[in-house]
Amino acid sequence: MDRKVVVPGDLLSEDAKRSGEGTYIKDGSVYSLLYGLANYRDKINVIPLAGKYMPAPGDNVIGVVKDITFSNWIVDINSPYDGLLHISEYPKRIESDEMSKYLRIGSSIMTRVKDVDPTMKVELTLNDRKLGPIKTGQVIEISHTRVPRLIGKGGSMISMLKKEVNCSIFVGQNGRIWINGCRDDTDLALKTIALIEKEAHTNGLTDRIVNFLKAEKEARS
Amino acid sequence: MSNVISEIKKDFIYNLLLKGERMDGRSFDQYREISIERDVIRKAEGSALVKLGSSQVLVGVKMQPGEPFQDSPNRGVIITNAELVPLASPSFEPGPPNEVGIELARVVDRGVRESKAVDLEALCIEPGKQVWIVFIDVHILDDCGNILDAASLGAIAALLCTKVPASRFGLGEDFILPIRDIPIATTAIEFSDVLMFDPGVEEEAVANTKLTVITTANGDICGIQKSGTGMLKPEQVYRIIDIACEKAKEIREKFLEA
Amino acid sequence: MIAMDENDISFFKDGLRLDGRRADELRPVKIKVGVLARADGSCYIEMGGNKVIAAVYGPREVHPRHLQEVTRAIVRYRYNMASFSVEERKRPGPDRRSYELSKVSREALEPVILTSFFPRSVIDVFVEVLQADAGTRTAGINAAAVALADAGIPMKSMISSCAAGKVGDTIVLDPMKEEDNFGQADLPIAMTPNGDITLMQMDGNLSIDEFHQAVEMAMKGAKDIYELQRRALVEKYSQISAASGQEEVHLYE
Fold it and tell me: Maximum CA pair distance of chain B?
């Protein structure tokens, strides 16, 4: 697997068919749009180091209520775009003047992106048993670019982590993560997540995390 | 810019504080790492770049001859300004200083002026006609909390390496600006009855009371500023002052008495 | 201040300029990527005696809302000089010159930014001149381009900027302060590495021939600067990899 650091405008390939994420085509050749790591597979993708979270339908995210209008909670989702949670997307039927009783400014929620329109109007929903207001536990923030690594292929990394640390964990695509458990378990979860974030771009990470968890748990017993 | 702090974060910070802990592991009266680089802007008569944790403040001192104030015809003039430029924080907006920027400049100025650090009489060129004007310009580069202490440190560090540019104006030879004291500002925030010195950004956001104490080299107080919408009991104030004096002494000895 | 005019100074001695450079030589350049913690992207640059820092915030919400565009991000560029950056203290705040520089600098970068990726948002570029020594606008654009890349803003290419001038009837690259003050012409440009020009300004007096010469020289200078920008960005990445993914904040030296 070939990887290279590229800057915007770098020529990646003269075969337009290989244009992947973070690239553009001009006169039949593929160029980088971003400063990051170019991944040379069938398609060439450029993975950026930085950049803002762009919401997409189906994304789980953790938001903080920043304003309340007549029929919407306006939710900060750590993106250039706020999420709108319509009163009908609350799992219970409530009246407009009760909205702040259930979710007030400063409340955190585990929510999902229902829809995003071409002007980046983002609609959120709480209509799912796995979603809802956050009342206990802790919310941390990592770079959203590391979230895919934290989740792993088919969810392998995160399932393994949940099992090994005995905590409830909700991973937001926007980089916010909710953890709930007893103090020691939470500490272990936090340490592990920090390690994954730090080494997200390296190879053999899964094995290293497995070993790390083993070692930590042995040290505690 | 709306920057709502989640309640869960406020609770988290508060719970840590109850245990005497802070998010970055510091103790309640511990300052972040400080570095001071002097003479970084050669075009300025004096300058200093201060790093306090990740906060960065650049202070430049410029001097030129000018008219004295009518009520002090033999004394030089100090003018302090602070620019909270938008590159330093997502919540700084372009434009002339707002009340926060003006307050910062005036508190930095207070430390310099009330400690009599600058010998203003030595800055007289021709009594009643010409004196040296000292411009202290604070340029905030990165606001990661407590930029006031960093700015105040930068101001005195810049003054300590300032050369009066007499030759440029045909007024004789350049000379080192005489500095007689080293005022140091130390700021603490109060949050649910817990005190914390050198607050970081998030700590500043959850606290609603701040107290800045400026002390001189011999331990006297030459400036105080309470800001924020909370209340302080006299015992809290005295406690802050005691620790402030200690902290100021440490910082002064470590960085500015070389 | 001693009054001088261009006939008093000899700009060349033994074929070298006042600061020892040849006619086509750039002043020393230093570039540090990612120097600020709060900004989304940042860059500190020294070009000769110029010390300039650029920061990018965005894409982010536009305030006031009426400025937003439904189909794309707007780009804002604010060039500002610190009071202590020049020999005679400058009053804080923008003047007519900084408004003009901000406009042309923004127009130098906007052509390559993929603003359509970010409807209803703003990409803010802030440039602070900490010390000025002729060529602050080109230094600002160079730093801004790196800061944009550092912030992860998608761009078709980098932008690099350089000026040429005429002093003592000779075309020179990257004029310094005295050459700028007493020179006969000043021509700053900005371009993509392919040579597409996104900024061009000129004041002074040049024959058509001299103009061609100056443009060619400035474009070569910009290309050299592009290599330095690229190197700084690549170096930062390898340092991150070396430290196992830990982002290092570069400090000024």
Answer: 63
Count of structural domains, chain A: 3
Cα nearest neighbour of B15 on chain A: A138
CA C99, B56, C26, C233 dihedral sign is: negative
Name the percent of chain C lying above pLDDT 70. Answer: 91
At B239, give phi and psi (nearest 5°): -65, -45
The answer on A143 and A113 residing in a single domain is no
Whether ipTM exceeds 0.90: yes
Spatial distance between the Cα atoms of C17 and C167, rounded to a whole number of angstroms: 10
Give yes or no for C114 touching A (CB within 8 A). Answer: yes
Gap between the Cα atoms of B21 and B23, Å rounded: 7
Residue with tokens 């105040």: B152
Backbone angles phi, psi at B189, to 5 degrees: -110, 160
Q: Which of A172-176, A180-184, B165-169, C152-156 has the lowest mean pLDDT?
A: A180-184
**A24/C245 Cβ within 8 A:** no
The H-or-E segment that residue C141 falls in is helix C136-150
What does the alpha-carbon distance between residue A22 and residue C230 come to, in Å, rounded to a whole number? 18
**Other beta carbons less than 10 A from residue B207's beta carbon:** 20
Structure confidence at residue C5 as a pLDDT band (50, 70, 90): low
Looking up tokens 């045909």, which residue turns up? B170
On chain C, the residues whose CB falls within 8 A of the CB of A119 are 70-71, 119-120
Regarding predicted confidence, which is higher, A205 or B161?
A: B161
Distance from CA of C189 to the nearest CA of A (A): 19
User: Which among A76, A134, A139 has CB closest to B4?
Assistant: A76
Class of domain B31-256: alpha beta
pTM of the shown model:
0.94
> How far does the CA of residue C53 sit from the closest CA of chain B (Å)?
9
A79 to chain C: nearest residue by CA?
C60
Secondary structure class of A162 (helix, strand, coil): helix
Cα separation, C118 vs C68, in Å, equals 11
Could B137 and C82 be called an inter-chain contact, meaning their C-beta atoms sit closer than 8 Å?
Answer: yes
Interface test with A, best of C62, C116, C153 (most A CBs within 10 A): C153
C181 CB neighbour count, 10 Å cutoff? 14
Partner-chain contact A139 B10, CB within 8 Å: no
Q: Does B32 touch chain C (CB under 8 A)?
A: no
Give the span between the Cα atoms of C88 and C83, in whole angstroms.
9
Helix pair C208-242, C136-150: axis angle to 10 deg: 40
Q: What is the mean pLDDT of chain C?
A: 92
In A, minimum Cα distance to C155 occurs at: A33
Tell me, yes or no, whether A35 and A99 share the same domain: no
In a domain, A55, yes or no: no
Q: Which three-class secondary structure state does DSSP give residue B15?
A: helix
Reduce the DSSP state of residue C85 to 3 states and report it: helix
Residue A65 with chain B: CB contacts under 8 Å: 4
Does residue A74 lie within any of the structural domains? yes
Pick among 3.30.230.70, 3.30.70.670, 3.40.50.2300, 3.40.50.2000: CATH of C19-242: 3.30.230.70
Q: Give the model's pLDDT for residue B133.
A: 98
What are the φ/ψ torsions at residue B64 (nearest 5 degrees)?
A: -155, 155
Q: Which residues contact A21 (CB under 8 A, 6 or more apart)?
A: A45, A46, A47
Domain spans of chain B, in order of start: 31-256
Q: What is the mean pLDDT of residues B74-96?
A: 97
Of the listed ranges A144-158, B33-47, B71-85, C219-233, the least confidently predicted one is: A144-158
